[in-house]
Structure formats: structure tokens, C-alpha cells
Write a structure and sequence with these properties.
The complex is a heterodimer.
Chain A: E1 3-8, E2 17-22, E3 28-33, H1 43-54, E4 66-71, H2 76-79, H3 82-89, E5 91-96, H4 103-114, E6 118-123, E7 137-142, E8 158-163, E9 166-170, H5 176-182, E10 190-194, H6 213-217, E11 225-228, H7 240-249, E12 252-255, H8 256-259, E13 262-266, E14 271-275
Parallel strand pairs in A: 3-4, 4-5, 5-6, 9-10, 10-11, 11-12
Antiparallel strand pairs in A: 1-2, 1-13, 2-3, 7-8, 8-9, 13-14
Chain B: E1 21-32, E2 35-47, E3 53-58, E4 61-66, E5 70-73, H1 93-105, E6 110-120, E7 132-136, H2 137-147, H3 153-160, E8 167-169, H4 171-192, H5 198-206
Antiparallel strand pairs in B: 1-2, 1-7, 2-5, 2-6, 3-4, 7-8
Helix pairs in contact in B: 2-3
Classes of the chains: A alpha/beta, B alpha+beta.
């Protein structure tokens, strides 16, 4: 039976999401969205190495472990560590959004231009037709075709993953103005939604602190699970106002600072959540 | 907004002319509860697998060792006749390529990477994203301790108070890195519409 898993890796502060899509024959396809590994804090790298070890896999003779690696936007807390991961694991594709100035992205593009560890790389947007990951369909809701914002957070790739009748939404750090435009495009069968921008007020409220465009989409739904990649240092994301609003909505919310690694798993009909608790 | 303590000039620790400085690039600025910090990227040389024999020279002796892990902080471009460098700053975009090439193509197990530190935003004037600043060692060390969760924000600001003159805008290097970035984007864009992507280009043209 096909399965789609999205794991929010607890990287301390920042984002890193490991995706595994298993097809009906049991073959796995892997993807990684963002990383915040530094020299002294290599959470994503250690997660990947432990996973490979547990499963008795060997990447030695693999050209590419990942089907794709994605950088949602060119901020350091999403890009750091990706080069080391690319060097070790390789990927068929490296996807990213366009940025005005983005040294983190510049370095990665430079590497991809020179290295065979990444077969192909390109900017993606809502016009891009994404290849499937295993049996999961991928779609880009944002950014719009060739639009580049001065606020780098608003260049974040917002992506949906769908298997059968279940969708998951990964939101990067897209802020309220983006959700004002695209909230209506959130699939009606969404069961997992990654809260934007680590649960900060910027990613929650609409322009002028209007009610959260994306939370409104889940009104009356008791089934959607919200996920927060916390960014406790230095700015204590998620913000209290966001947590209070989520609590009032009655929706279940899982946070990496409380639940450690969080895996959202679907067979296309229902969603399960697994987590550890430190 | 937290104010800098006013201190007497003889207790400040400005950069001396000969001081080693580290180029950092402003990545993002965040303010929360009246504390403004700028996330900055610095460049590091990393080792991911044990490789060739290295030698550490101390006076008359050479100590042989194999490097297992390394993280070194880049302070400037490659030094050498062919690198066309006299001082410690990046003068041309090609020097960034030369640095990457020497590290990554010239060795089997070293590579250039980026890491982050946080700096008090008030030290950086009206810094914008992608500006390059040169940071003195003592300020950099304090910032590293904070980033590595060795000290809290109060202790960081207390240490940093005397060191605010150790951050200086590097206008020319900002320009050099921006030009280099544009080159990377141009090279990457050329690959978007290669043979492999013909079907995607066709789809976009239809739209």
C-alpha cells in the first residue's frame, strides 16, 4: 500500500522536513525541504545518517539518495547545511525560489553548477509542473510565476503534497500577505498544515493584523493537524498570540520544541501522527 | 529598543589597522521584545571525511596528522601571487571562485560552506540584506558564543557593548559578492531551458 510521510526534524531553530513516499510496490522515494545545520549543530545530517543506519541502507553506490532537495527561500536558517547534505547524499533535483540577493542560494547554485551530485537544479514557482514523488502529487501554490518579493520570506515556496484523498501543505516562511492571496487554494482535503514562519505573528495574521487567512480555511474542521518547526532562539517562535489563536480554534498542534521529530503519515485516506517527547 | 551603554573611549575596543577581520553577510534582521538582531552568514572551510595527511608546523617541527573534522573561518581571499591580492579583502568576484576551486577542486575532503552568527543590529548601522560587514575577532567570538548557546542574550549584549566599533561596513566587498551572486544566477538560469526542460518551457509558453 502506498504511503506518504513528512517528518519535521527538530533542528532546534529553523526548518527541515524529510519526505518519504512509498509506492504500492514498497519502493521509497526521498526528498528534503530546507536545513538549518551548522558546523556545531548538525541535526538534519544526523537524522539522515541514523535513518540510513536503521534501515540497513548504503548510499555508497547511489548516485542520488534524494529525488529532490528543496530550498523554500534564501534565508540562512533554511539553507545552512544543504551543501554538506548534497555532497554526501546527492539529489536528482534541487529546487528553489528566485531571490533578489541570496548568498545562501548563490553558494548552492555555484555548487550545483559544478557538481554531479545534483543532476539538475532550477527555480520553481506556481507555473512549474512538478514531477511526482513516488505516487504522491506535488503542486506549487506560491510564488507566482517570475515574481520576486523584496521580503525574502514572501518568496517562500508553498507546496502541497497529495496522496489519494489526503493533502499536506508545506508553507516555508510565507507571511500574511501571501496567505491573503492563496489561502483559498489550500486543498479542501488538507489534513496536515505546516504553520508558516515557525509560528510567528508575521506568518499568522493577514495584512493589518486581520484574522489569519489560512486558519480561517480550517474553521469547523476538527481533523487538520497543525505543525510548527519552532525557532525558539533568539525570537521565541512560535509567538504566544499565535498559540492562543490556535488553541481557541480547537485544532491539534504539534511543535518540534515540544514533540521533537514529528512524522505525519498517510495512506491516502487518513493521517497518523508520530512523535518523540524529550 | 535596547540602548548601547555609553562608555569612555579608552575602554572601547576598536579595530586596529592590522586586526584580522571576518567578512559576514547580512541575511535577515529580526526584532522581538525591543531586541534587534541581525542574522549574518560567514564562510567556513569544512572537512567532511578523513583524507590526506596534513602537517602542523611548530617552529622546527612538523606534526603529521589526518584531519577528521575541521571548521575554519574564512577571513579573506586566497593569498598568493596569482590571486592578485595584496590586502585581506575580496577585490574581484573571481577571487571567490578561486577560493572555492582551491578548497574543493584542490582537495578531496574540504569544502566551503556557510554558517550563521547573530549580531546586534545597532552595530550595523542601516544594514540591508546582502551587505558585507567586517567583524573583529573579539566581537565575532562573543557572537559565536551566543549562537552556540554558550551565553544568553543579556550576557552577549554585555560583552558586545565595548565592541561595537568592531563591525565595519565593507562597501567594495558588498559589491563584489553581489556581482558574484548575479553570475551564479545567470549561470543557473541558462540551465533552466536546457534539453531536459524542453517540456517545461513548452508548458510555460502555452500559458
Amino acid at each position: 500500500m502506498a504511503r506518504l510521510d513528512a517528518t519535521l526534524i527538530d533542528v532546534g531553530w529553523g526548518d527541515s522536513i524529510f519526505i518519504e513516499s512509498v509506492d504500492a510496490q514498497g519502493k521509497s522515494s526521498f526528498a528534503l525541504v530546507d536545513s538549518n545545520d551548522t558546523t556545531y549543530n548538525r541535526s538534519s545530517y544526523i537524522f539522515l545518517r541514523k535513518l540510513i543506519e536503521r534501515r540497513g541502507m548504503s548510499i555508497k553506490n547511489m548516485d542520488h539518495f534524494f529525488e529532490f532537495i528543496m530550498l523554500t527561500h534564501a534565508h540562512g536558517d533554511h539553507a545552512q547545511g544543504l551543501k554538506a547534505i548534497m555532497r554526501e547524499f546527492g539529489a536528482r533535483r534541487f529546487y528553489y525560489s528566485r531571490a533578489k540577493d541570496g548568498n545562501a542560494l548563490d553558494m548552492l547554485q555555484n555548487y550545483c553548477n559544478r557538481s554531479k551530485k545534483i543532476e539538475h537544479h532550477q527555480a520553481v514557482d506556481s507555473n512549474t509542473s512538478m514531477e511526482r514523488l513516488g505516487e504522491a502529487d506535488l503542486d506549487i501554490l506560491w510564488p507566482e510565476y517570475r515574481v520576486v518579493d523584496d521580503n525574502e520570506n514572501n518568496n517562500s515556496i508553498v507546496m502541497t503534497l497529495a496522496l489519494g484523498n489526503v493533502s499536506m501543505v508545506l508553507s516555508g516562511d510565507a507571511e500574511g500577505e501571501v496567505w491573503d492571496i492563496i489561502a483559498g487554494q489550500i486543498p479542501k482535503n488538507t489534513l496536515m498544515f505546516k504553520v508558516p514562519h515557525h509560528g510567528s505573528v508575521n506568518g499568522f495574521f493577514g495584512p493589518g493584523k486581520s484574522p489569519s487567512p489560512w486558519l480561517q480555511q480550517f474553521k469547523g474542521s476538527g481533523t487538520v493537524k497543525l505543525a510548527i518547526s519552532s525557532h525558539i532562539r533568539p525570537f521565541k517562535h512560535p509567538h504566544k498570540e499565535v498559540l492562543d489563536a490556535i488553541s481557541k480554534s480547537g485544532l491539534n498542534c504539534f511543535r518540534t520544541d515540544e514533540h521533537y521529530h514529528i512524522t505525519f503519515s498517510t495512506d491516502g485516506s487518513a493521517l497518523e501522527v508520530k512523535y518523540s517527547h524529550v | 529598543m535596547r540602548k548601547l551603554n555609553v562608555v569612555q573611549s579608552d575602554t572601547l575596543e576598536p579595530l586596529s589597522r592590522a586586526a584580522i577581520t571576518i567578512p559576514v553577510l547580512v541575511d535577515d534582521v529580526k526584532t522581538y521584545e525591543r531586541v534587534s538582531l541581525a542574522r549574518c552568514t560567514y564562510f567556513s572551510i569544512e572537512c567532511d571525511t578523513p583524507g590526506e595527511m596534513w602537517y602542523l608546523g611548530t617552529g622546527d617541527y612538523m606534526i603529521p596528522f589526518i584531519m577528521i573534522g575541521l571548521s575554519g573561518i574564512i577571513t579573506g581571499p586566497v593569498i598568493g601571487v596569482e590571486a592578485r591580492t595584496v590586502g585581506g579583502e575580496f577585490e574581484y568576484p573571481e577571487q571567490i571562485d578561486a577560493l572555492i576551486s582551491l578548497i574543493e577542486d584542490g582537495t578531496k575532503n574540504l569544502f566551503l560552506d556557510t554558517n550563521e552568527i547573530w549580531l546586534p543590529y545597532e552595530f550595523l548601522g542601516k544594514a540591508r540584506r546582502a551587505d558585507i560587514y567586517r567583524v573583529g575577532i573579539k566581537l565575532f567570538q562573543a557572537a559565536m558564543q551566543y549562537s552556540m548557546v554558550r551565553i544568553g542574550v543579556k550576557e552577549f549584549f554585555d560583552k558586545a557593548d565595548k565592541l561595537w566599533q568592531q563591525a565595519a561596513f565593507s562597501e567594495h566587498e558588498t559589491d563584489v559578492f553581489k556581482k558574484w551572486g548575479i553570475l551564479q544566477r545567470e549561470m543557473s538560469s541558462k540551465r533552466y531551458y536546457s534539453e531536459k526542460n524542453k517540456h517545461r518551457l513548452a508548458k510555460k509558453m502555452e500559458l
